[in-house]
Amino acid sequence: MKEYIIELKKWFEEKIFLHNDLKSQKNIFKQKEIYYVNFWINIWSEFNLTRPALIFEKSKFSFWRKNVIVIPITTYKNNKKYNKFDIKINKSEINWLKEDSILKLLHIKDICKSRVKTKLWTLEKQDFEKVQNIFEKIYK
Question: Which domains does the chain have, with CATH numbers?
Fold first, then answer.
């Protein structure tokens, strides 16, 4: 419990810093870009810590908003069962992936731009089309 309180204190300090980071709120992120995102501390099955995420919203909306819509990415595990809304992205020479990964569309999230950190790469067109198709099945 003591370790959790220490981590919570660190997150609180980080949150104050992020809250006061007005410069990052003016950032414009482009759809299909992959960034490291600081999800930090969450509960249960919510994504946490710093991990890659796909920018899902169009950049013309990103300019006016303090938030941005992202889809978290996690490492693919052979022994784990995935649902039909998870999209596998294979590692390749044109992306930064060390391992095959999964885009978790059911975990789509609207986050403050201050949480968005380093750009990693841009998702290939055919993979983004898969994301759009599955998104339409889920949310329309």
Answer: 2-139 (2.30.30.110)
